[in-house]
Design goal:
heterodimer; A: mainly alpha; two-stranded antiparallel sheet; B: mainly alpha; Helix Hairpins; 0% strand
Chain lengths: 189, 101
């Protein structure tokens, strides 16, 4: 893990990039630009993961977020006002509470990092970490992997049901009313 | 690059995410805050995997589960945004005073 000065410099570049772009997400006028700032933040975190030796997870993170942010940009252009950032945008509520909560969350999470003496066992990441992960995915942890897959599948089905224009109980924009469970009611129709 | 510094970066990402999720009015920006929080979580998790777990692949397995959670959250969020916009023409949280459609 101690890769010398170069690795440190690259790490700090990625870390600063992740934090600055993460902050810029909420400070830009354009929602599309916000999506790409978030993508940059994820890409920087993915770079740190690669530095740590988790190449597979880091690259999957970058690839997944690239697709996700494109969808996010499209959703924003579809629904949101002012997606292009031609006007100044400052759409916040309870700003002071939010700032306080964010600082508090950082403090609560940072305190144990600074106070606890972590076991200093910098094991070098295994050379074939990706191969080990593959064997884990299709070996001991296959149930977890499959459960995640089934979860994603059921999410896809549920999302299509949620977002479809015409559902079981009628058009989406007329509100929903469930059919009566009374037998005569159903027969008289 | 040490465990402490990476955990501090992850904590800062999480804090920015909390701020965004609580302060933004637009649904999509709110979801970006949630994403940033999960981003910090993944970073901390992989840091622990690299520095203390001795290369046990189950740590990376957990990171993949985190990513699944992130994908599920995004997909459900977009579907709910679509539905709410269709029924209420609402694109910010202030327009949703009632939950019943």
């Amino acid at each position: 893990m101690s890769g010398g000065l170069l690795v440190d410099v690259i790490f700090w570049l990625f870390a600063a990039g992740a934090l600055v772009t993460g902050y810029r997400v909420f400070r830009t006028d354009s929602m599309v630009r916000a999506a790409f700032y978030l993508l940059a933040s994820f890409a920087a975190v993915g770079g740190i993961l690669v530095l740590l030796g988790a190449e597979f997870v880091g690259m999957v993170l970058i690839l997944m977020m690239a697709g996700e942010m494109l969808i996010m940009a499209i959703v924003m252009v579809m629904y949101m006002m002012n997606p292009a950032g031609l006007n100044p945008m400052w759409m916040v509520h309870q700003h002071r509470v939010a700032v306080a909560a964010g600082v508090l969350a950082f403090a609560v999470l940072a305190a144990p990092v600074l106070l606890v003496d972590f076991p200093d066992r910098p094991n070098p990441a295994p050379e074939e970490a990706t191969a080990q992960l593959g064997e884990e995915l299709l070996g001991d942890s296959m149930l977890v992997f499959q459960t995640a897959g089934v979860g994603l599948l059921s999410t896809m089905i549920g999302v299509v049901v949620l977002a479809s224009r015409r559902g079981r109980y009628g058009e989406a924009d007329e509100g929903s009313s469930e059919p009566s469970l009374e037998l005569q009611d159903a027969e008289s129709r | 690059m040490s465990l402490e510094t990476i955990l501090l970066v992850a904590a800062a990402l999480f804090g920015i995410g909390v701020y965004g999720a609580l302060s933004q009015q637009s649904f999509v920006m709110l979801m970006m805050g949630l994403e940033l929080m999960i981003n910090g979580g993944i970073l901390a998790l992989v840091a622990f995997w690299a520095f203390t777990a001795g290369g046990n692949p189950q740590g990376q397995m957990l990171a993949i589960v985190f990513m699944t959670v992130m994908a599920v959250e995004m997909a459900l969020g977009f579907a709910l945004i679509t539905n709410v916009y269709r029924v209420r023409r609402a694109d910010i949280t202030e327009k949703l005073r009632r939950l019943k459609g």
